[in-house]
């Protein structure tokens, strides 16, 4: 079993190794378990106590000795279901109590409301933020200004962005600076003719945020995300007015 899955079950490799050894042995003494697992007796004993506390191992006395037995492998599924239940409860508390309380601590605007990202990883984060933010809103849509020069580079780190947007039922309106661009489901596009090619630029308006993406030297992507209801609203008004005129 891989480390990630074990971690989710609050188990480590040693615990899993001893559990497997005990499962194959049946009820067994610490000495036999240690020999089967290839782990010294002291460590085996401490590990068995930890597994017992997690309900994966039980024991029964036989005279002065303890014989340990592994619980059914189905117990691992039960552990996962217990973790899921705990996590669902935690998510509920985060939504209704913790997160709203933390938001009240934030000033209306600060340097933290402006964030900078760079490279493909940074742009992927911004694109995911657009989808995640809009998906939580009652009206799932956002607006974009996009130049031709950036289109080839924008979705490089997130090639299935459009599929994810459509899957989430998010609509987008695009004002394209220059010709080109592909039509897609749940999208509308209008164009502004330009004299010559406009430098690479992409502005996404998804209240309460505005993301601005451009290319530095060697087509290195950089982005700025501003979280401000006022700025997002002003940009939205500008976009809507221009949209009606095109």
From TrEMBL:
Residues 9-70 form the Transcription regulator TrmB N-terminal domain. This is TrmB family transcriptional regulator. It comes from Balneatrix alpica. PANTHER family: HTH-TYPE TRANSCRIPTIONAL REGULATOR TRMBL2.
